Amino acid sequence: MRTARTRITLRNVSRTFIGAQGERIEAIRDVNLDIEDAFSAEGRDVGEFHVLLGPSGCGKSTVLRLIAGLDRPDTGEVLVNGERVRGPGRDRGMVFQKYTSFPWLTVEENIGYGLKINGVPPGERRQTVAHLVEAVGLRGFEKAYPSTLSGGMQQRVAIARTLALRPQVMLMDEPFGALDAQTRAAMQQLLLAIWEETANTILFVTHDVDEAVYLADRIYVMSARPGTIIEEIAVPLPRPREPSVKQRREFVELQQYVLACLRRAPGHGQVRVSV
Ligand SMILES: Nc1ncnc2c1ncn2[C@@H]1O[C@H](COP(=O)(O)OP(=O)(O)O)[C@@H](O)[C@H]1O
Ligand SMILES: [Mg+2]
Q: What is the DSSP string of 191-259?
């Protein structure tokens, strides 16, 4: 038997920005979200993979930034582990679409950076970094600088750097959005493999239906701006997920169902169907 624990809660959260010409941009309106993490009968955290899916500009990054504590809602509340979010914290790690490694640090220095500023002793730091370098397939590139690496490799550095701090919740904002289709597919598989091991909660943002169904245990579908959650869809496909799952009838049916939800949404915008 599995039990659940609420990790992230958004209650009636709205956020309006003021644009460059002084115009009001209502990004999200009345977003309600309950993200639970699953635990085994023995109380072991088995993690859940949550995906926030919606058209470009619907407010996905806004939601993620609020959960990360990088922004404040105008109305409503954002809770993590039952506590109101007041700023960034070690319980949450964020991976952005843009590669965000420090260009003046090597791969291993980037991955170990958070550990260093958190006072983790050098011996333990080296061990964690070595393990993560291995996990994300960057062995042999420890001393390389990010600018010499491909986009996929740079994103692996960012994922490893975030994982190093063992956050309870990983917030990932279209991390594979800038990658070519083949690299993207490889990164999806890599992420699932790492996640099977770390078993933390992931909230992954994408506008790609195929990516959402492939990765998720649960998909939250957002409407176009002002974004709000219009549907929650469970993805009961077996794990570990091999890429061949995409050929299964259940996969294709789920994909069709998710697309229909997006099309029904008021003012539906661009959504990528598949890669
Ligand atoms: N800091 C900001 N200032 C002004 N407008 C913003 C700001 N952040 C986001 N927006 C606007 O809010 C809307 C939602 O943005 P965003 O959350 O980035 O959408 P998504 O991530 O789904 O593409 C967009 O119209 C965007 O231009
Ligand atoms: Mg975004």
A: HHHHHHHH--EEEEEESBHHHHHHH-SEEEEEPSSSB-EEEEEE----SSPPGGGGGSHHHHHHHHHHH
Closest listed ligand to the CA of 175: 2
pLDDT tens profile 200-243: 899 999 999 999 999 999 999 999 999 999 999 999 999 999 99
**Burial 228-250, CB ≥16 within 10 A → b, else e:** bbbbebebebeeebeeeebeeee
Instruction: Give the Å distance between the CA of 174 and the centre of ligand 2.
Output: 7
Q: Is 183 in the pocket of ligand 1 (CB under 6 A)?
A: no
Q: Whose CA is nearest to atom 3 of ligand 1?
A: 17
The CA-atom distances, in angstroms, between 45 and each of 40, 196, 202 are 7, 11, 12
Task: Answer whether 128 contacts ligand 1 (Cβ < 6 A).
Answer: no
Distance CA 91, CA 81 (A): 9
Please tell me the distance from the alpha carbon of residue 56 to that of residue 6, in angstroms, as a whole number: 28
Predicted TM-score (pTM) of this structure: 0.92
- The domains located in the chain, with CATH, are 42-71+86-91+167-275 (3.40.50.300), 98-165 (no CATH)
What is the tens place of the pLDDT at every residue in 62-119?
Answer: 999 999 999 999 999 999 999 999 999 999 999 998 878 899 999 999 999 999 999 9
Report the separation in Å between the CA atom of 138 and the middle of ligand 2, taken as the mean of its atom positions: 27
